[in-house]
Amino acid sequence: MPLKRILAGPVEDAARGLLGCELVREDVVLRIVEVEAYAGPEDTASHARHGRTARNAPMWGAPGRAYLYFCYGMHWMLNVVTGPEGVASAVLIRGAEVLAGMDTVLARRRAAKPSAQICAGPGKVAQALGLARESDGLDLLRAEGLHLRPGLTPGAILSGPRVGIGFAVEPDRLRSWRFALAGSPAVSRPRIAP
DNA sequence: CGCCGGATTTAA
DNA sequence: TAAATCCGGCGA
């Protein structure tokens, strides 16, 4: 099944389908190992919970676009928009392994040496790719600029509650919409129970 | 290894 | 005023 079709489906399936896929920008190639699913206005943890705003507008767009937002006054977060056009949902990229371009990643992350956790966290992933506001809304399925492509077929997948959404109400708050490749060293904290 | 506070801008 | 976070410092 083509990636575009998976992204056009339910956000939970799209999230699982993104595990193992690759993000490419210039010389940097990352393998996605951890994601979180965020649905539309009905999901009280989602940026779409108050309806359409200037910030979350890309969430209503076509599947496969980027939704980037600024968080905690200093971090950019990369999401892949999912669902049909007009339906607001997106998948937050939370963790990745560096397949190529480690020197560039080290420079952007201001790290002295490689480590398994260099892209373990959503802020780290966007920073490693050099992403900010100007990449908001990009079509990731076009092979120019930032590109998303199929990769490794996932083995075992772990799931658990989403991180940093204590403000959401149940059942959204406890929903297991965080997914990660079992055994990957690039999964962010807190760890998902096996 | 786990907990805690500060950084720093924006959206609602 | 709190946020879909990160990092360094401190104590066990």
Short synopsis of the structure:
Strands 1, 2, 3, 4, 5, 6, 7 and 8 form an eight-stranded antiparallel β-sheet that branches. The chain is an alpha+beta fold and 194 residues long.
How much is the average pLDDT? Answer: 96
How many helices? 4
Please report which band the strand proportion falls in: under 5%, 5-15%, 15-25%, 25-35%, 35-45% or over 45%.
25-35%
CATH superfamily: Methylpurine-DNA glycosylase (MPG)
| Overall spatial form | globular
Low-confidence stretches: none
Number of domains: 1
CATH topology: 3-methyladenine DNA Glycosylase, Chain A
Indicate the CATH architecture: Roll
Instruction: Tell how many strands the DSSP assignment holds.
Output: 8
Radius of gyration: 15 Å
For the report, how would you describe the main beta sheet?
A: 8 strands, antiparallel
What's the helix-strand series? HHEEEEEHHEEE
CATH class descriptor: Alpha Beta
Class derived from helix and strand content:
alpha+beta
Assembly type: single chain
Description:
- There is one protein chain.
- The protein contains 4 helices and 8 strands; from the N terminus they run ααβββββααβββ.
- By secondary structure, the protein is α+β, with helices and mostly antiparallel strands.
- It has one domain (3-181): Roll (3-methyladenine DNA Glycosylase, Chain A), CATH 3.10.300.10.
- A hairpin with an 8-residue loop joins strand 4 and strand 5.
- Helix 3 (102-109) packs across helix 4.
- The two termini are 28 Å apart.
- The mean pLDDT is 96.
- It binds a DNA duplex (12 and 12 nucleotides) through residues 36, 38, 45-47, 50, 53-55, 69-75, 77, 79, 92, 94, 121-124, 162-165, 167-168, 188.
